[in-house]
């Protein structure tokens, strides 16, 4: 009788006991304080952290930086920049911190990981040879590629849920959100540069090839597909760090931020290109770690588990103040 009741509860997605395994893996009810405290203490140890390849401080700051994408944008003429509904930006000090600036790398563990790493390394070298120091053009082309996996991954999970007639457990929306975030990056950079006719032709051809190839890879090995995206985002982090260094060195003028960037990131009127690069780089950190996390779940056959959110408490802290601001260091 008890076993049948638990089975029904699982189908309905209802937590019925501390250790039913619903929600995150083996997550006890928060109402059971003693068991929940022990569970959280175990989860926070380095050996059991889902995002073990990055430091806890980086996890906290990345979660705060990305929290603004959790709500929809709404038009409001009474608000600065005419927009509302996004949490405030975090300070430049946090965005420039070593925790986010550090180049984290997920060490390949399987043949699929090594293949994914080699593919991305080869593509990164070709992009560097083609664009050299044209960082703005590089950013535009990079975002046209980076916006594809989220759509393909979401479609794969959606069709899998229909085909298997079971729940997806919350992965479809984050993948769609990832694709939308990357598309917004493209629109932001289009206000700072215009791709050449050759670059546009290259993107049109590359998109068809990439969508087809990534779709096949997702069908054959979702783990390798998400690992490839994780390594692609590692390359994006390096590219934006180089872009930032070029601005700091004066090789690229630190012009005012575009209107789309100000609205999307809720930046003040005096925001600059440098501020935008810092925010975009933080977004790429989130995509990097999210895809490595999903790749790990496929590796351990836990792809039907709920996503483990990065430092959920930090994300909540970022939404407590609705006033748009961008703290600047005075030192």
Summarize the structure.
The protein is an all-alpha fold and 331 residues long. Helices cover 61% and strands 1% of the residues. The protein has 2 domains: 2-40, no CATH class; 49-318, Alternative oxidase (Ferritin, Up-down Bundle).
List keywords for this structure.
alternative oxidase activity; transmembrane helix; disordered N terminus; Ferritin; two-stranded antiparallel sheet; 331 residues; Ubiquinol oxidase; disordered C terminus; mainly alpha; superoxide-generating NADPH oxidase activity; 14 helices; 2 strands
Written description of the protein model:
With 331 residues, the chain is mainly α. It folds into 2 domains: 2-40, no CATH class; 49-318, Alternative oxidase (Ferritin, Up-down Bundle). It has 14 helices and 2 strands. It has a two-stranded antiparallel ribbon. The longest helix is centred in the C-terminal third of the chain and has 27 residues, at 222-248. The radius of gyration is 21 Å and the shape is globular.
């Amino acid at each position: 009788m008890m076993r049948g009741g638990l089975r029904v509860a699982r189908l309905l997605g209802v937590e019925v006991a501390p250790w039913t395994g619903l929600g995150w893996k083996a997550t006890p009810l928060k109402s059971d304080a003693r068991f929940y405290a022990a569970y959280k203490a175990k989860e926070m140890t380095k050996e059991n952290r889902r995002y073990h390849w990055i430091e806890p401080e980086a996890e906290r700051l990345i979660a705060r930086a990305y929290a603004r994408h959790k709500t929809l944008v709404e038009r409001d003429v009474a608000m600065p920049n005419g927009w509302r509904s996004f949490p405030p930006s975090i300070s430049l000090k946090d965005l420039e911190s070593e925790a986010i600036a550090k180049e984290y790398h997920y060490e390949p563990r399987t043949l699929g990981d090594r293949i994914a790493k080699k593919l991305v390394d080869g593509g990164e070298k070709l992009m560097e040879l083609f664009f050299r120091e044209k960082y703005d053009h590089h950013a535009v082309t990079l975002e046209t590629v980076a916006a594809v996996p989220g759509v393909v991954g979401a479609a794969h999970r959606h069709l899998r849920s229909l085909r298997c007639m079971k729940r997806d457990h919350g992965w479809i929306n984050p993948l769609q959100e990832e694709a939308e975030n990357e598309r917004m990056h493209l629109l932001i950079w289009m206000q700072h540069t215009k791709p050449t006719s050759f670059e546009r032709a290259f993107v049109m051809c590359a998109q068809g090839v990439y969508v087809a190839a990534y779709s096949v890879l997702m069908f054959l090995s979702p783990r390798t597909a998400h690992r490839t995206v994780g390594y692609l985002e590692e390359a994006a982090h390096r590219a934006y760090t180089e872009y930032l260094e070029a601005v700091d060195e004066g090789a690229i003028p630190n012009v005012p931020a575009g209107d789309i960037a100000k609205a999307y990131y809720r930046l003040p009127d005096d925001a600059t290109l440098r501020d935008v690069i810092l925010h975009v780089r933080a977004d790429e950190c989130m995509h990097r770690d999210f895809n490595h996390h999903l790749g790990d779940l496929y590796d351990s056959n836990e792809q039907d588990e709920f996503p483990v959110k990065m430092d959920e408490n930090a994300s909540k802290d970022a939404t407590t103040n609705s006033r748009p601001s961008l703290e600047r260091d005075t030192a």
